[in-house]
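Lab notebook, bench 4. Still working through the backlog of constructs that have no structural model yet. Next entry is a single chain of 67 residues. Request: give me the structure tokens for it.
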Amino acid sequence: MKKYTIILEPDLEEGGYTVTVPALPGCITQGETVEQCIERAREAIANGEPVPEEVERPQMVTIDVAA
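Model written out:
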């Protein structure tokens, strides 16, 4: 079993989330709930081209910027 990081970004206009897989550029899906997003991401990864293994986890950092 391989592990992949997925990113869920809230879709403020349509509701739900847009899901991306950093290890697989172009692998994008969406869902209404977190659970649905996870399931759809699994399906998208399994149904695509041969899948490389994620060798390094992406980092997510929040920064402050003067307005």
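Notes after review: The first strand starts at residue 7 and ends at 10. The chain has one helix and three strands. Flag for follow-up if needed.
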